[in-house]
Structures are given as C-alpha cells and as structure tokens.
Amino acid sequence: MKILVMLSVIVLITTSCTETKRIIVHSCSNNIEANADILRSLELNTNDLKENNIEIKMDNEKCGYTLIYNNKEKFIEGGMTDIDLMLEIKSFYKLK
Questions:
Q1: What is the spatial distance between Cα 24 and Cα 9, in angstroms, rounded to a whole number?
Q2: Measured between alpha carbons, how far is 87 from 34 in angstroms, rounded to an integer?
Q3: 23 pairs with which residues across the strands?
Q4: Residue 41 neighbours by CB under 8 Å, 6+ apart
Q5: φ/ψ of residue 75, rounded to 5
C-alpha cells in the first residue's frame, strides 16, 4: 500500500511540474485567404515552436488560433502574419 501511495505522489509531482504549452490552429475552411495566412504564419514559426516545446494541434472548427498554457486559454480570431503570431506567442507564454 505504501508503495502505491508513493508512486501516486511521484506521478502527481512529475505531471504537475510540466507546463503544457499548446496551440490549436483553426483552419478557416470557409475563407481560403485567411487559411493560407494561418498556415504560412505557422510554417514560418515552426522552429521557434519546437524550441519552446509548444505542441500544435490542427482543428477546423473555428478560424484562428487558440493558445493554451496550463489552465489559461486565449483565442485569436482570423489569420495574422508570422511576426504578429510570434509576438502573441512570446507574450502569452512569457518567452524571451
């Protein structure tokens, strides 16, 4: 029983210490131009996203980006340039 409790505590500590950084990219299925902007801005930021351990998930439910950091979320509607996206990412995730 003690081993089970100790293992549970270890699992809780290791999972609570990891910071979940995720971006849900919502492709704009009804707007070809916005969809192209979103995919281009994402493509140009791929290296920075990998370096900062930010997971990317694709979705076509909305149009824009949802930034997720642990229990915080921020939805950005529509497409943006790669520089604007990186500024939003740096601000939201508090990156240097």
A1: 31
A2: 19
A3: 56, 67
A4: 79, 80, 81, 82, 84, 85
A5: -100, 130
Report CA torsion sign: 43, 47, 49, 54.
positive
Cβ–Cβ < 8 Å for 57, 10:
no
The reported pTM is 0.76
Distance CA 22, CA 32 (A): 24
Sign of CA dihedral 82, 87, 88, 89: positive
pLDDT one-digit tens code per residue, 37-89: 999 999 999 999 999 999 999 998 889 999 999 999 999 999 999 999 999 99
**Both tokens assigned to 73:** 């979320």
What is the residue type of 81? T
pLDDT reported for residue 18: 56
Cα 15 → chain centroid: 18
Residue 29's pLDDT is: 82
What does the pLDDT read at residue 93? 96
